[in-house]
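ok so i was messing around last nite and threw this chain in just to see what happens. nothing serious, just curious
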Amino acid sequence: MEYLNQNLESLRQTFQTFVGAVKDSRGGVLAIVPSREGSPSATCQGQWVHSAYDPRKEAQSWAEQQVREWKEGELGVVLGVGLLYHVEALALVKPPDSRLAVVVPDVSVFKDAAGARPLGSWLNTIQWITGTPEEMAEQLASQSTPLRFFTYGPAARLHVEEHQRLETSLRRIMASKVGGRLHVAVVGPIYGGSLPIAHYVVSALNELGHRVSWLNHNVHQVSYEAFGSFREERHRLTLQSRFADVLSLSTMAHMAEDPPDLVLAIAQAPLTLAVLQHLRKKKFLTAMWFMENYRHLTYWRQMAAGYDYWFVIQQGECLDALKRAGAAQVHYLPMAADLTVHRPMTLTAAEQQEFGGDVAFVGAGYSNRRALLPRWVSNEWTFKLWGNEWDGAANLSSVLQRNGARIDTDTCVRVFNATKVNLNLHSSSGIGLDAQPDFVNPRTFELAACGAFQLVDERTLLPDLFTPEEVVCFRRTEDVRQLIRTWLTDTAGRREHAEASRRRVLRDHTYRHRLQELLVAVGLNQPDRIGSILRGERSTVQLKERAATVPELVPLLSRFPPGQRVELKDLAADIRARAPGRQLAREELLVLMLDSYRAEKKDLI
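result:
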């Protein structure tokens, strides 16, 4: 009690409200245990929160590792309270002109820390962030300086859920503020289901105002598939693999000629691990949006360490598996819809006749769909099956449209709009419903964006994306026929659900939303690189302010519009354009020299 009163008294003048909340809390979250070295350590539910041997030495080692990435002017934000040894150690080694904040989801933990040992004057130099995760996110988002996060694992694991909610809220708040200032290279696949999504990503980035270099490898699909004509599988696979290697090298050549701020690969993009490692060596940031079921497509195991950031459509074990495989940063990022593509449509009578019906399913002929869809065909309603890979499904031949030909996105959208009840059955390798139903497929968002009514198999991640008033789920196959029967007779109910789900997509689930979250997630972890660009700290105005101590640079910067982002290469290009016929100033020669060095360091080929 003596330590508690002393520590809170020293905080009272600066953080009166915080001190009051701590005093009113119950405490008792941490069990205080002497360490081998003699200073107090702590456990929670049988797990150590600090070292059982020497918590001070452990904290010092942790702080020395964190400070390597900490730049001057950044607000360091610590996740994990414990007994504050790590915070104390970080406060002693922080860079000049940098401040430190600590997220305190539960003030009872702070009360335990304040009562365990005497804390020094450094307590008053810390910004204590308290409240709900959403309130704490608002406090951090209001800061005028970039944020650098430090996670002290042993203590942070006590509040994993709160920290996740904090990060999600912070990303969404900051996403609404960042401007379009990045150069993003989007690397698409040669073919497949992620190809249209790559187009949506490019469109969203353009809409946000970023400069996009679109590396569209779909133009090579014919050549890639030509190798499939070899009878010998070994020859076919070898040639296709070598061809993918060539495309990976061509991607690297594009980077060398027009270096981006971020390389964003879409699932199945032809980027080899060797090329990714070379990009990292040259200081390029890379990210992969892996919109696949990680249990079925497992090439991520070989590629995990190659990308700086992974964005995935599953949580839990998926995040853990990628981290175990070597991924440094893994974030959950669900699918979405493109409102310019997936939209309500007014169909002609002929289109309604061709595409319309009581019930429809659009998709490929996976084994579970072959087994389940015949059960839902009935004389009570019309049923239309659209899509390819249905060869041999004799019990569905009567409802299969266009002889099982692949249909384009425009046709899909017309079917969605023309159908009363759209079935949305997620693919599975079994013969029933998905045994591990977590991720939510793109079709869910696309149907909703079209203002179409859907019945979807229940997914564990769906409640965070849509409510039961927006999307109707089924958890048993035997319930589907009755659900179809019920909803076919409830025209008003179908319309209410469809309209509600479309409103939800417009509010939360467009590719614009997703790309904002993705870029902010990268920017929060790279506050001095991507973050500074997103915040506009490389604009002409801000650079001129920072160049006040080097007045020779101000005339060079004044040649650019106030809001334009200006890089070293832009200054160099402007100087070269004006160089003929005049003698260059010393500062101009220095800029050209630095730009030549930059170009040499970025030379990838």
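not much to say yet. The chain has 26 helices and 18 strands.
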